[in-house]
Every structure is written in structure tokens, then in C-alpha cells.
Amino acid sequence: MLILPIKKKWFDMIKSGEKKQEYREIKPYWTKRFLSELNKRSITCNFSEEDIIGSRYFVIFKNGYKRNSPQIKCNIELHKGYGKPEWGAEEGKKYYILEILEVEDG
Q1: Architecture label for domain 2-105
Q2: Domain limits, the chain
Q3: Which of 8, 44, 73, 82 has the smallest set of CB atoms within 10 Å of its CB?
Q4: In the chain, helix, strand, coil percent, each to 5?
Q5: Cβ(71)–Cβ(63) under 8 Å?
Q6: Tens of pLDDT along 75-103?
Q7: Is 22 helix (H, G, I), strand (E, B) or coil?
Q8: Contact status, residue 71 vs residue 62, Cβ threshold 8 Å
Q9: Residues linked to residue 74 through DSSP beta bridges, in sequence order
Q10: How far apart are CA 31 and CA 65, in angstroms?
């Protein structure tokens, strides 16, 4: 399961249901992390970069880096696209969009 640290403002908005997307830059680092997580779920481990788009993941959003930092578990679906500036995206910049489908606990 991916554990993603986020700032308190975004954490609180996700927890309340106000923010429905989280963003990660489209960089090899994030591509590898999403691909690795997808491959963990497969016996064959033959997924490619294209397969991560549209895939669903469970992630833990964590407000901070300490062991006891507040966290919430979410079900997300991964897309590529342009994010919303009011939710932290830079205008005109393409991102991996973590579409939050369900906040399970927190």
C-alpha cells in the first residue's frame, strides 16, 4: 500500500470529503511507485507504464512523517490530466491525478 505524506490543509480537505483529488508530478519516481504497487498485486508482474492509468489503489495519506502522524486510508483511481488550482495544482501543468473514490477511515 502506498503511503503518501501531504500537508495538513489538503489532509483535512480530503478527510472532510471536500477535496476529491490529490496530485503527483508525472516523473519517473512516481511512475515507478505506482507500477511497483500494481505489480505487487499480480502473480505475473507484467504490467507496463500504460497499465497504471485507470488502475485502482489503496493509499494512506499521512499528515507528516512521524509514526503517530494522523492518517487516512483511501481508495483511489489513477488518471493523468490537469488538476484544479484550488486543490493545489499549478494551472496548465499535467499531473498524475489520484481520484479519491472513498475515504475508508480517519
Answers
A1: Roll (2.30)
A2: 2-105
A3: 44
A4: 25, 40, 35
A5: yes
A6: 999 999 999 999 999 999 999 999 999 99
A7: strand
A8: yes
A9: 59, 103
A10: 22
Distance of CA 12 to the CA centre of its chain: 15
pTM of the model: 0.89
Q: Report which DSSP code applies to 29.
A: H
Contacts of 57 (CB under 8 A, 6+ apart): 1, 2, 34, 37, 38, 75, 76, 77, 78, 98
What are the cell numbers at 31? 511512475
**Measured between alpha carbons, how far is 48 from 41 in angstroms, rounded to an integer?**
14
Please write the tens of the pLDDT for every residue from 28-72: 999 999 998 888 876 666 777 888 899 999 999 999 999 899 999
Cβ within 8 Å of residue 89, ≥6 positions away: 23, 82, 83, 95
What's the DSSP call for residue 8?
A: H
